[in-house]
Write a structure and sequence with these properties.
The complex is a heterodimer of chains A (about 140) and B (about 160). Chain A has about 140 residues and is mainly alpha-helical. Chain A has a single domain, classed as Winged helix-like DNA-binding domain superfamily/Winged helix DNA-binding domain (Arc Repressor Mutant, subunit A, Orthogonal Bundle). The longest helix of chain A is centred in the last third of the chain and has 23 residues. Chain A is elongated and about 60 Å long. Chain B has a single domain, classed as 3-Layer(aba) Sandwich (Aminopeptidase). The N terminus of chain B is likely disordered. Classes of the chains: A mainly alpha (about 140), B alpha+beta (about 160). Chains A and B meet through helix 5 and helix 6 of A and helix 5 of B.
């Protein structure tokens, strides 16, 4: 499973903004930190503003700020603004109606169910609170 | 000592609840409240199951059956045991029941129960704690995630025995 680019940009933005609730951050600052296109990021941030997860203030000292509920908003809530994760687009492919094709679809469905439940169980607060456990498992840099 | 006045916010409510929540071993008299709370949460009253669970784990061996109380009122329970060598899994703590009353939710009671059972596991030399949940059990999935639990190297599988 791979999240689309807009979802990833939205997650980076939301998590970055929610980790610094006292600050307003500009799209350029976020784009620079995550080495992503600021042009594309601005569009994503506009969607987040429309979804009332992010507030924006114009002018000097302005920028974006997370205004959602960190305990309630989950990774799935954010992903669903940009892609239909619960029901991925159904492209009927050759052999889907065969016994093997149907069994294969069921297996992929099992995986999708785990993905959805996992994304839905991790709130912004939980992500920020527990992300260090994942970093501990990363191979140590030798440089 | 400086008298710190807490603001009347959810945070101070949480602070007060955590301060006054006591975690102790379950006793037989707790079973009525445990059965009632479990029935509220799951929709099924299982008197025999809980009686058997208490008979097996109620004395601290080979598992841990703990309850939470706030100001002498029962408000939650947790149940777990040590399991070893299931398909190569070294001894680990298994949590297989957790319940917190509606009125005590979001006050840190579940976290305190979880921390306490983890401490018991740690005291008997256990390094890892595991659980199994329904994918649809959003409440418990979110809770265990918030405690730092995540996907592990084992997976639950099933089939109908009549197939």
């Amino acid at each position: 499973m791979k999240l689309n680019k807009a979802t990833r940009f939205a997650l980076f933005s939301i998590l970055e903004l929610a980790s610094k609730p006292e600050k307003h951050l500009s799209a350029t600052e976020i784009a620079k930190k995550y080495d992503i296109s600021s042009h594309h990021l601005v569009k994503v941030l506009h969607s987040l503003v429309r979804a009332r997860l992010v507030g924006s203030v114009r002018g000097a000292g302005g920028g974006y700020r997370f205004i959602g509920n960190t305990k309630r908003i989950t990774l799935l809530d954010i992903a669903e603004i940009f892609e239909d994760i619960r029901q991925p687009p159904v492209e009927h492919e050759a052999a889907d109606d065969t016994n093997i094709g149907q069994a294969l679809s069921q297996i992929m469905h099992e995986i999708d169910e785990i993905t959805i439940a996992t994304l839905n169980s991790i709130s912004i607060e939980t992500f920020l609170k527990t992300m260090h456990y994942y970093q501990e498992d990363l191979p140590q840099s030798t440089s | 000592m400086k008298n710190i006045k807490l603001p009347n916010t959810a945070e101070s409510k949480l602070f007060k609840a955590e301060e006054s929540t006591l975690i102790r071993d379950a006793v037989h008299d707790d079973l009525t409240e445990i059965i009632k709370l479990d029935a509220q949460n799951t929709g099924i009253e299982k008197d025999d199951y809980w009686q058997a669970a208490f008979d097996r784990f109620g004395n601290g061996e080979p598992g841990f059956f703990l309850v939470a109380e706030t100001e002498y009122h029962f408000c939650g329970y947790i149940l777990g045991e040590v399991r070893a060598w299931e398909f190569g899994s070294p001894p680990c703590g298994w949590i297989f029941a957790l319940g917190v009353g509606n009125e005590a939710r979001e006050m840190g009671v579940g976290s305190k129960l979880f921390d306490c059972i983890c401490l018991h596991f740690k005291n008997v030399g256990i390094e890892k704690v595991r659980t199994m949940l329904a994918l649809s059990d959003h409440l418990n999935m979110s809770f265990f995630r918030s405690q730092g639990m995540r996907g592990g190297p084992f997976i639950q599988l099933e089939k109908n025995v009549s197939d």
